[in-house]
Design goal:
Number of strands: 6
Strand order of the largest sheet: 2-3-4-5-1-6
Oligomer: single chain
Order of helices and strands: EHEEEEHE
Helix content: 10-25%
Largest sheet: 6 strands, antiparallel
Number of domains: 1
Radius of gyration: 16 Å
Number of helices: 2
């Protein structure tokens, strides 16, 4: 077992998967994922997330702002959640972060469930923070 801190420095751990645009998507996907995880993540919320970027086209730089609805499934204590959106799966654990040994099974379960429900063709990006 690793080192135990009196005041652990990790505020939030996040594992995020972005699936390719070539992957199928259906508005029912979040509900189908929730049906599989609601025992452990009974609270649900719909949130609108904003993405801000920059597009460079023929020497011109233009802002790119996109809004997307994301469903969040929270554990009863609201210290952990799963987020599902268009070609997106994110698993978050807030303070106190338990350990990688406890976070990894959450990631594996959420990813396995997403694959069973959404059947993505490809993964575009994986992030672990």
């Amino acid at each position: 077992m690793g080192r135990r801190y009196k005041n652990p420095p990790i505020i939030e751990a996040v594992c995020k998967f972005r699936f390719g645009q070539d992957s199928p998507w259906d508005i029912a996907v979040p509900g189908l994922v929730y049906a599989e995880v609601r025992g452990a993540f009974p609270k649900r919320r719909q949130v609108r997330k904003l993405g801000v970027g920059v597009l460079a086209d023929e020497g011109a730089v233009k802002p790119n702002i996109q809004a997307a609805d994301v469903m969040q499934f929270h554990r009863a204590d609201e210290k952990a959640l799963i987020q599902v959106g268009l070609h997106l799966l994110a698993i978050n654990h807030l303070r106190p972060y338990p350990s990688w040994d406890k976070f990894l099974p959450m990631i594996e379960k959420a990813l396995r469930t997403y694959y069973e429900v959404a059947a993505p063709n490809s993964i575009h990006r994986i992030g672990l923070r």
